[in-house]
Amino acid sequence: MRLRPYGLALPEWALGSEWLALSHLWIASENLTKAVVGKVRVEQGITEEALTHSYDVVTDDPKEPRWLDLLGALEEPYLRGRHHDDTAKKASDGLEHGLLEFSKITEKAVKCTNTTFRYVSQSILWLLGLPDEIATKLLDIAPRDMQSDRKVIRGGLLGAAEDPADENELYPMLNGSHRSTP
Predict the structure, then answer these.
(1) What are all long-range contacts of 81-85, with beta carbons under 8 Å and residues at least 24 apart?
(2) End-to-end Cα spacing for the chain
(3) Is the sign of the CA dihedral 80, 86, 91, 95 positive or negative?
(4) Cβ partners under 8 Å of residue 90, min gap 6
(5) Is 124 a member of any domain?
(6) Domain that includes residue 76, residue range
(7) Residue 173 lies in a domain
(8) How many CB atoms lie within 10 A of CB 163?
(9) Please, what's the b/e burial string for 19-57 (b: 16 or more CB within 10 A of its CB; e: otherwise)?
(10) Which of 65, 79, 115, 135 could share a disulfide with 125, CB 3.0–4.6 Å?
């Protein structure tokens, strides 16, 4: 179950579907957190409580009975990248809880899906204990959009118009040309 969302993200890796790939990747990272905590704990030869104490979290405070949840949150930077901002979390929460407009979710997802994919992949490879040379080769393989040659245009319409669509059309049409970039 822990890696299933990672597998679900890959077929969604397509232009315009970054938000969907990211939502699966975020779930994968949440699922992997417990495994990361477990491996760190085993490698250090300490209990969950002792690991939590190493972060200066009090475990016997009756006002904070969910200290194990805090441990997962403290280990998340390793899992999701120590220098990765919380763009992925904001996009995921925005989608899951309806906190953001879809355009904002998409904007955030476009910015961080590749990075989140890399962090989740690094965590999986670290958990597997693969030699560095093999892990590096695997990390160099980037997911690719294999669905189509379609293009996505993001933007907005400016100006006053009661209905910007042509007569007998549901939506405005965009005609033009494009060039592919390598």
Answers:
(1) 81/115, 81/118, 81/119, 81/122, 84/112, 84/115, 84/116, 84/119, 85/112
(2) 37
(3) positive
(4) 100, 108
(5) yes
(6) 4-139
(7) no
(8) 9
(9) bbbbbbbbbbbbbbbebbbebbbeeeeeebeebbeeeeb
(10) 135
Residue with tokens 């990211």: 22
CA–CA separation, 71 vs 124, rounded Å?
19
Q: How far is 6 from 113, CA to CA, in rounded Å?
A: 12
Reading the block at residue 37, the tokens are 């905590």
In a domain, 129, yes or no: yes
Within 10 angstroms of residue 141's Cβ, the number of other Cβ atoms is 8
Tokens, residue 43 = 């490698």
> Could you tell me if residue 144 is inside a domain?
no
Tens-digit pLDDT profile for the chain (182 aa)?
577 888 888 888 888 889 999 999 888 888 887 788 888 888 889 888 787 777 777 777 777 666 666 666 655 555 545 445 578 888 888 888 988 999 999 999 988 888 888 888 888 888 899 999 999 999 998 888 867 666 666 677 777 778 878 888 887 777 776 666 65
